[in-house]
Amino acid sequence: MEPLHSPIVEHAVRLAAVAHKSQKRKSSGIPYISHPMSVCLILMKAGFHDESILAAAVLHDVVEDTDLTIEELAELFSGEVVQYVKEMTEEKETREGKKRSWRDRKQGHIQVMQQATLGARAIELADKLHNLEAMLFDLQTEDKVEFWGHFGASPEEIVQYYRSMIDAAGQSDPQLESLVKNCNEKLEGLKKYLP
C-alpha cells in the first residue's frame, strides 16, 4: 500500500508556515500560507504527485519573500527541491544591490521559465492559476480601482505578464496542458475586470 503521508512535504509545510507566518495576501489580507498550500493542491489535482515538486510548491516563495536563503534550504531538502525553488525565485535586486523594477523582474523570470525544468514550470503554472483565481475572487468583493492599486503595474501590464508567463511555462507540454488551459480560462475572466 502506498503511504498517503509524505514527511518531505510535511517538513516543507511546517517550514513555510513559520517563514510566512507574519505575511498576508495583497488584496484579501488572509494569511499568506494559504497561497503555497493552494498551489500544492492544484498540482495534486493536475496529477503531479512527486514529493520534490509538491515540497517545492509549498516552499516556492520562501527565498523570494522571507529571510530564508537557498543555502539554508539546501541543508534541509534535496537538490531537486532546491533547484525548483531556485527556478521559482525572482531576482529582486541587481548585482549592485539596487531594487529591480516590476517589469525588469517579471521579464527576467519569464526568461528563466523558458529554460526551466518541468517541475518548476508546473509549479509556476499552478502559482499563476491560484493567483488568477484569487484575483477573480477578490474582484467580486472589492472596489476595482482599489484592487488594481495593490500591484506595481497597470492592469494591462499585469494581464500581458500573465499571458507571457503562461506561454513561457506551458511550452505546449502535454503534461502541463490542463494547467495551461485553466490559466487561460481564468485570464480571460480577469480581462472582463480591466478598467
Topology of helices and strands:
Layout (H helix, E strand, L loop, with lengths): L6 H13 L14 H12 L5 H9 L2 H4 L4 H7 L2 H10 L13 H14 L2 H22 L4 H5 L6 H16 L6 H15 L4
Describe this structure in words.
65% of the residues lie in helices and 0% in strands. It is mainly α. Helix 3 packs across helix 6. The N and C termini lie far apart (53 Å). 33% of the residues are buried. The mean pLDDT is 94.
The H/E string reads HHHHHHHHHHH
First and last CA, distance: 53 Å
How many beta-strand runs? 0
- Number of helix segments? 11
Largest sheet: none
Backbone structural class: mainly alpha
Global Rg? 16 Å
Envelope shape = globular
**Poorly predicted tracts of residues:** none
> What is the chains' assembly state?
single chain
Strand percentage lies at under 5%
pLDDT averaged over residues: 94
Residue share in helix: 55-70%
Supply database-style keywords.
195 residues; mainly alpha; 0% strand
Summarize this, please?
With 195 residues, the chain is mainly α.
